[in-house]
Design a protein that fits this description.
globular; seven-stranded mixed beta sheet; Aminopeptidase; 171 residues
Amino acid sequence: MLRARRKHRRHDRSLELLQLMRPVPRSGIRRGDSADLPVIHTLLRAAGLPTADLTPDPGLSLWVLEGEPALQGVIALQRFGHEGLLRSLAIAPEQRRRGFGRELVVRLEQDAHAEGVERLILLTETAEMFFRALGYQSVDRHSVGHAVTQSAEFRSLCPATALCMSKALGS
C-alpha cells in the first residue's frame, strides 16, 4: 500500500510539472481599428510611448494582441511609399517576456512586405537588443527617406538621441 501511494504522488507531481511546462497559449493577433484606440492609448502611455499623433489615418496600420479582459499588445506601421515606420510596440506588463512582442513584429513585417513595403525604419531608446535579435541594424538618420523624417515621430515625438534602426524586408 505504501508503494502505491508514493507512486501515485510521484505521478501527480509529474502531471503538475508537465502542466507548468506547457507552452503559454498564444492570443490572436488581428488588425486594429479606431474602436481599439482608447485601449491602445492606455497601453502606450503605460509603456512611456507617444500617443499624440496616433489617430485614425489611412497611412497608419495597427495590429493588436487580443487577450482577456482587454487588448494585451499593440504595434503600428506608418507607411511612406516603400518605406514604413515601425512604431508603438507595447505589451501589457503582465504579458511581457512571453514572445508576444516578437510575434507582433513578425506579423507586421509579413503584412507590410505583402503590401509593398521594402524597408522598415524605427526609433528606439530602450529596445535596441530586442530589434537587433530580429535582424534590425543601426542606420544613420540621414539614410532614411525624406517622407519618414518628416513624420511627427522623427521631428518631435522621439528625442534626437533615439537610435535609428532599419531592416530590409523580403531579403
